[in-house]
Design goal:
Helices cover 78% and strands 0% of the residues. The protein has 345 residues and is an all-alpha fold. It has a single domain, classed as MFS general substrate transporter like domains (Growth Hormone, Chain: A). α1 packs across α10 and α7 runs antiparallel to α13.
Length: 345
């Protein structure tokens, strides 16, 4: 049954990749400028919302049914419903219709030429690397923070040691709820801040993303300081850190729309998504777990050392987030020239 599970997960991944690649380009075909930013914000709000609801639903269904298999049987039904709604209600807009008069495009190029152009597009490359940093942090924190907070409560003697997986079910529910709300707040805050900053500078998009990333790194670091003595304090740091981290999702997509011509956007989104998962959440949970195990095995095991070892491993996340902020600052250097090139093609 394991290989059937792997096959099923692979098929789900194909659908997810196709949808996440094409959907932003459809929005780009329908809207421009501030309206496009707003619509992308609404779209990308669904990512943390879905992640948060996933944590909550998965934990709740497993508890109610007494079997983790039932947690995997909820999403297919939702997928069929949303797929039907897309077929019925989403219009088939012409590529670049909102930006080109009459829907006529100035450039039609081969896939190979598109790839070469994207690799040479410095704003696109740096923003994609920054997106990978976001993905790295969200993947690692989403996997390990609930367990980390549970271990913190064990050390503080407000919870018992967990002898069977999954641990920290209550913390998963709280973390999921925070992720839902901070996703909404972050996306809206990021879009609003960008709209206001565009009145001050044309480089507003990457600069807002950079500030959000660098600010997020500070509060992610504070999670590990606060968790030693106050779980509430840790949750407050998670709330602020995730809000700042999620503030750049819609803006990053908008940056791509500005610096990539309409006919290359689907390819650009696909390559960016592949890169962000490859360098980000595809390996970050495993890497954090591996580092934590290495640290934990270096001395005699105890509840305190289990808590500290996981915290030390998770400290990699804020450093990666700072690196992502640097990539957004690099994007700001080339943003205007790359946007001008895209507008001229």
């Amino acid at each position: 049954y394991f290989w059937l599970l792997v096959l099923s997960r692979g098929l789900v991944g194909i659908g997810e990749a196709s949808y996440s690649t094409i959907a932003p380009t459809i929005i780009g075909d329908l809207f421009t400028k501030n309206t496009r930013t707003l619509m992308l914000s609404v779209f990308y709000f669904a990512i943390p919302l879905g992640s948060g609801l996933g944590y909550i639903t998965g934990s709740s269904v497993k508890q109610v049914a007494g079997d983790w298999h039932w947690a995997l049987r909820v999403s297919p039904l939702l997928g069929m419903i949303t797929g039907t709604l897309i077929l019925v209600f989403v219009p088939a807009a012409k590529r670049g219709n909102a930006e080109q008069l009459g829907g006529q495009l100035k450039v039609q190029t081969s896939w190979l030429r598109d790839m070469k152009a994207l690799i040479r597009n410095r704003s696109y490359v740096f923003s994609s690397l920054a997106t990978s940093a976001v993905s790295f942090a969200t993947g690692a924190l989403g996997m390990w923070i609930p367990l980390y907070l549970h271990r913190a409560q064990v050390v503080q003697k407000t919870a018992e040691t967990c002898s069977s997986q999954p641990c920290g079910t209550k913390d998963s529910l709280i973390f999921g709820a925070i992720t839902c709300f901070t996703g909404f707040l972050g996306v809206i805050t990021g879009a609003g801040a960008t709209k206001w900053c565009r009145l001050k500078t044309q480089r507003a998009d990457p600069l807002v993303c950079a500030v959000g990333m660098l600010g997020s790194a500070i509060f992610i670091c504070l999670i590990f300081v606060a968790a030693k003595s106050s779980i509430v304090g840790a949750y407050i740091c998670i709330f602020i850190g995730e809000t700042l981290l999620f503030s750049n999702w819609a803006i990053t997509a908008d940056i791509l729309m500005y610096v990539v011509i309409p006919t290359r956007r689907a390819t650009a989104v696909a390559l960016q998504s592949f890169t962000s998962h490859l360098l980000g959440d595809a390996g970050s949970p495993y890497l954090i777990g591996f580092i934590s195990d290495l640290i934990r095995q270096s001395t005699k095991e105890s509840p305190v050392w289990e808590f500290l070892s996981l915290g030390y491993a998770l400290m990699l996340c804020p450093f990666v987030v700072v690196l992502g902020g640097m990539f957004f600052l690099a994007t700001a250097l080339f943003f205007l020239s790359d946007r001008a090139k895209a507008e001229q093609q």
